[in-house]
Amino acid sequence: MDWKPDRNARKAIYKQLAEYIENGIADGTFSPDKPLPSERYLAKELNVNRSTVVAAYDELESNGLIKRKRGSGTTINKDIWGISKKRIPSWNRYVEAGSFLPNLPVAQKIRKKTEESNLINLASGELSEDLFPIEDLRSITSTRSYIGSIGYDHPQGNKILRETISKHVKEFRRIETSPGSILITSGAQQALHLVVQCLLKPGDAVAIEEPSYHYSLPIFRSAGIRTYSFPIDNNGINPDNLITLYKKHRIRMIFLNPIFQNPTGTLLNEKRRKKILEISSEHGIPVVEDDPYSLTSFTGEHVSSLKSMDVNGNVLYISSLSKIVASGLRIGWIIGPKSVIERLSDAKQQIDFGHASFTQWIANDFLESDKFDSHIKNLVVHLKSRRDQIVSSLSEYLGEQVEYYIPEGGIHIWCKINKYFNEMQLLEESIKKGVIYLPGSTMGSSKNCVRFTFARENEKNIDEGIRRFASALKGIN
After folding, report:
1. Which of 204, 244, 368, 392 fits as disulfide partner to 252, beta carbons 3.0 to 4.6 Å?
2. Which domain does 241 fall in, by range?
């Protein structure tokens, strides 16, 4: 047999073998009048375990391509060549062949586990339902005296909502913009997808923070984008590292989450923010600023976004209501040059013909009302209380075993464990103990780190969750 499996390929050997045999059946390499090679023969010939050959034949049999009969060996199913030909698609091959890549396996596992109600959830990056302004939103929907168009809306989103957002970002975020420079998106996630798909091409290099939420997103790999990271300290990224990356890799775009960053909770200080904008202007590198948390400052002080300091139009600004109002509203937006917004809105139209009208009306009325300001103030009080609780619990149950930066806003705390541990073993043990969190590797860190989110659980559960984590850590050593 001339064919050999590629042992360096990501695809499992049994799948390579199954594909080889399927192609051989189609092109006549394997005759329908003769049995296929035996499992023992193939295992010896290819220098693989017999179980690998069995798995390959199992897949071919499930797809209706072969028949297996004890004493007669394995033969090609003759029905596939006749009038009664019926074949089941090899769905696994289609699933693996798509250009849109799946989430990392550990991320998929965590998402499934967070659906279990018996786990204390310190993993999901969203508010608990008791922090949603449910009564305010219910009041808005029940007293609304008019209904706008329920047909397709403007490609950039409802004009009234875009006018309201332009007023909102001026009042709360000190960003000057116009409705024509705003695109409504299905949360910040869709905004990021549109930017990557429309403004970059395969092979382009971009800079992201390390660690970073962006690391966990498969959108860069799906689009063939090369990502290069620069580390974060307690004051955010060091702009000097960006210059080094640019000279070495010709960086085309910078992705930043500078305010209460996910996952570290750090704040890019003002001096560094100015330096980033200077570098952007000097080299003509666009900056994509993801800002979900700037309104959650625990000190009450206003935090200036990069966009509010941007006088040259170099920053694409992304934000949403997901982290501060309700994730289910799916209201996000991009602010940028009109030509860019028009390009992105054209792509969004191709995907979904525009955003749902009802949630846009609700978001508009809530942003316009005085309820929004009171909600944010109430939210900050609760988030600060939960932040204080997780810091207290980390100190009580883990002490000097852990190092962390205390965030002054946002919903995450980033912890470095001061001893070696097997990351997946600790995660599995923690799940057994009844608590779940995000391992550092999902955010691009290999330094024994974990991310806890304190917005999803109340103070009592946060304390119990950290106690269970500490127990799990002790149990694996």
Report:
1. 204
2. 147-369
